[in-house]
Design a protein that fits this description.
Length: 241
């Protein structure tokens, strides 16, 4: 009888051989399948060879940067991305999040922290451990519908708008708490299970990206409003259908 390994398959892309191989050994010991790429070129070659569950991507690589590869990857798939960034790479981190990365870990890092981030992102992408809600399986707001049972966002014209795992979690969190001010700290803790640092703009970037997908004018938003000094609020009625 053939045995099919269904454990998550992680693609690690990092030009540092020591880090790349250390992560490969560590993640495999945790029961994950791992493929390693030393740069974006090799990652592109490996991409069609497997159905990857998540990509761990170093942003600072020679040749094609991690940001360029992330941009290409988002054109191919909504596969979750966890970025590896240097401690001072605030701008690159923000750009990476704007491109659709789901989380980040700053170098130097503890492999167990990265493992925790990977598992959290995979849970979000897979919808967590809970079964689909019934009978209320969709939330309607401002003409849009979020189908929670299938994790699909449908626009007023009936067209599906792809969401990353992080974008889905952010939107569903707000839809469950309409007309309630949610601080950045609250959202960071709910979405990323972490406390924000003094210069962390991850939530602001995620909200900006979500507004673009909802066609919500960032200068004068009507769906997700900014509360000065407070955070954000979903300022539209939500109906369960």
């Amino acid at each position: 009888m053939l045995f099919m390994d269904t454990s998550p398959h992680i693609l690690v892309v990092d030009d540092d051989r020591e880090i790349r191989e250390l992560l490969g050994r560590f993640l495999e010991k945790q029961g994950l399948r791992v493929s390693l790429a030393r740069d974006a070129r090799e990652a592109r070659r490996l991409w069609p060879m497997a159905n990857y569950s998540l990509v761990v991507l170093d942003l600072m690589m020679p040749g094609e940067s991690g940001l360029d590869f992330a941009r290409w990857l988002r054109g191919q798939s909504q596969v979750p991305i966890v970025m590896l960034t240097a401690m001072g790479e605030e701008t690159d981190r923000i750009v990476g999040l704007e491109l659709g990365a789901d989380d980040y870990v700053a170098k130097p890092f503890n492999p167990r922290e990265l493992l925790a981030r990977i598992r959290a992102v995979l849970r979000r992408a897979q919808g967590g451990e809970a079964p689909p809600a019934a009978p209320e399986q969709a939330l309607r707001f401002a003409g849009w519908v979020l189908e929670t049972s299938r994790r699909r966002l449908v626009n007023p014209d009936g067209v599906e708008v792809p969401l990353t795992g992080g974008e889905y979690e952010l939107l569903s969190t707000m839809l469950e708490r309409p007309n309630r001010v949610l601080t950045r700290d609250m959202l960071m803790d709910i979405i990323h299970n972490r406390q924000p640092g003094p210069f962390d703009r991850a939530i602001d970037v995620a909200v900006s990206r979500l507004r673009r997908k909802l066609e919500d004018d960032g200068r004068n938003p009507s769906v997700i409003k900014t509360v000065r000094g407070g955070g954000y609020v979903l300022a539209t009625p939500v109906e369960r259908v």
